[in-house]
């Protein structure tokens, strides 16, 4: 076979293959068009109404979720302000001034409960609250932290789960039925909120030690030890990244309070010796 014949035959074979590919591709396109038109169906009016209702329900859920998130932000902001106010009790020298600060904090707690938390309970009334729990559990953690800090300052006791449950139950007096409103409180949210109070207690203890009031710092370290032992008793029942992180932070806060008390105790033991040396040198 000559060189020209070989080129002609190779070109023909190439064109034939390309033509077969095109014809097959065009046939498949025609078949798809026939099959799609053959099995095509239209939605009935009832089905269209169902999808419209689904859209409305999803929009209502998103809007409700955003309203709860906004209320949660307001709760967090107000609780942080209350915590800041409670820290001011260290700078007040008189017992009357401390009582006045605590009464004002209690008043602000009632405003948070009766306005913000009640409104959140209204939004969640007769609904599956665990569907919206991620929109408000972070606010409850901050509320529990502030409430636990307040209870320690007033009584030195641990905030109980039942006390928070009672604070999250309301009666809607705006309606004739006086229906009961409430907010679900997962146990993990309560425990996380108590974890957060460790940082506030650490700041309070260091401030008290710096001002020479070691008795309050000793009460704080005993409180934190008891709370940490209770968490350690749970073991690995709750094993999440957030739980592990907060547990480590609480432990670090406890160690800082203990170190502050150890240093204060060492200084207290050294002070009489220094005073005795000064007196001896004076007498000589």
UniProtKB/TrEMBL annotation:
GO CC entries: cytoplasm; nucleus
Region (Disordered): 1-42
GO MF annotations in UniProt: metal ion binding; sequence-specific DNA binding
Superkingdom classification of source: Eukaryota
Entry-linked InterPro entries: Translin_C, Translin_fam, Translin_N, Translin_sf
Biased composition (Polar residues): 1-16
Similarity annotation: Belongs to the translin family.
Full protein name: Translin-associated protein X
Species, as recorded: Onchocerca ochengi (Filarial nematode worm)
